[in-house]
Design brief:
- By secondary structure, the chain is of the alpha+beta class.
- The chain has one domain.
- Helix content is 41%, strand content 25%.
- It contains five helices and three strands, in the order ααββαβαα.
- Strands 2-1-3 form a three-stranded antiparallel beta sheet.
- A hairpin with a 2-residue loop joins strand 1 (29-37) and strand 2 (40-48).
- It is globular, with a radius of gyration of 12 Å.
- The termini are far apart.
Length: 87
């Protein structure tokens, strides 16, 4: 689950490929998702269709448009260089 306490960390861990793929997509919406296993956790970013919103949010992940993603990124004070390029 993504919370205000781990949002900065989630943004910090996104890869260049994930950011580029999601931001260059023709889809207007993205999902910021947390994945946890017995060896740790990591976040991913992917472009999504609006009809995926309920499933994404029911799993504790974030569904938003690209503008809100960038707003939340700035507010989180993350320094992910791949997202900074999109501001």
């Amino acid at each position: 689950m993504i919370t205000k306490d781990n949002l900065k960390w989630a943004f910090d861990t996104l890869t260049q490929d994930e950011v580029t793929s999601a931001m260059e997509s023709n889809d207007d919406y993205v999902a910021l998702e947390m994945h946890t296993s017995n060896v740790g956790s990591y976040a991913t970013l992917r472009s999504v269709d609006p009809d995926e919103q309920d499933e994404i949010e029911s799993n504790g992940n974030l569904f938003m448009d690209k503008d809100n993603l960038l707003r939340m990124f700035v507010e989180s004070e993350s320094v992910n260089p791949y997202l900074i390029e999109w501001i």
